[in-house]
Amino acid sequence: METQRLKLIVAYEGTPFRGWQSQRGGGAVQDVIEAALLDTTGQPIRLHGAGRTDAGVHALAQIAHCDVPRSGIPPAKWRDALNARLPPTLRILRSSPARPKFHARFDARGKIYRYRIWTSDVLPPLEHLRAWHLHGPFDFAALKRAAALLTGRHDFASFAANRGTGPVDTVRTIRSIRILRRGPLLSFRFEGDGFLYKMVRLLTGSILRVAQGKNDLAWMERLLAEPGQSKSSHAAPAHGLYLDRVLY
Amino acid sequence: METQRLKLIVAYEGTPFRGWQSQRGGGAVQDVIEAALLDTTGQPIRLHGAGRTDAGVHALAQIAHCDVPRSGIPPAKWRDALNARLPPTLRILRSSPARPKFHARFDARGKIYRYRIWTSDVLPPLEHLRAWHLHGPFDFAALKRAAALLTGRHDFASFAANRGTGPVDTVRTIRSIRILRRGPLLSFRFEGDGFLYKMVRLLTGSILRVAQGKNDLAWMERLLAEPGQSKSSHAAPAHGLYLDRVLY
Hints:
The structure is a homodimer. By secondary structure, the first copy, chain A, is α+β, with helices and mostly antiparallel strands. Chain A is built from 5 helices and 10 strands. Chain A is globular, with a radius of gyration of 19 Å. Chain A binds chain B through residues 11-13, 58, 60, 79, 83, 88-93, 121-126, 128, 130, and chain B through 11-13, 58, 60, 79, 83, 88-93, 121-126, 128-130.
């Protein structure tokens, strides 16, 4: 059967799904889209995402690719064909033809993640499961210094959870960490060439430890200087994290 | 027992509740807060809201009052006492002492509602149940003229659903309708001295009928000129509506 490679822009609310990656028993975003592909074509079709997101993590524009039968639905129409079979918390924003060798994960040059923190006493209901509710006071000068320290090329082994897949290269480049404050909302925008497992949540949680004065900058410097010798255990919760964009 | 009048600023996501007003069988916002008041004090306490919102309608700052025992919890601390007993989709943003005759509903000088419409092909998952998904194209000049026509003092009987409570005064003043466009998001901000039952949803739905070219301005003029002779049946869905503020 002749196939056509398809590039999908995928958005989801993280709460109802068991993360991106296919799970035994289903319920992951990948499972749900693969079920829609099977339902549309009658054939099992494998979906490849640019990056795995954990349960609870949201995506504004995850990228995925798959090979679909060439005859039948035109590439741009796959969006509607799949959306008709997906829940409203999971949407294909766009489907387009990709070159035969395009790979959503291996071709990615970088990623942008955002992390949202709500800092006032009460979390507004519309922010429930969409931001981390964390009280101040924060030392914003220390917060900025911590973010500056992490920016650049480092071995981030101390800011990664083990995935149980043997030794991996843990050197990554964080191109920028932008800090935004708007009223009680504090948010981070991380841009980097790639991120290790749980890395953005560990970076965020660790920056906030410093901002709260619970750890000092020397602690963070040590974690960077002696990669993996000890690890930060301060991961921010999944529901404040957003995969914003994949860069090619 | 000596009591103290309390003013509450209340926010909720509309989706999980059966509207504001107490329902047989419970499940309304008022029921849930009254249950928390009973649980806190051991006494049935009646809550009075500034305005009823329908099931699915959100509130950023609904106002309510109630009389609580004077001894015990200080007024500002009722916020935390109640929040500990409320679901995260319903929050008391602030509790404060009110003068003995303060009435959340009768003292209100006006209200601000917002209505959010998402106009692109696909509704992003994070907008699910938070905006009305309505495709264009829209005639924005006609939309603005329709909004201008509705602004001011009118008998809005044609833009109200019957509540089955006999004849009511259906004259209201809309002080302003502001139209905001940001990318695919179109939103309205209605400020008025008061709104009839389903009025904001009927105004929004009717303005959009004109913007889509499905009805003309003459139709809207007729509905205003002959109040209640015929009625607009084009109510926008509840989940795009937000009670933003109550003015005193």
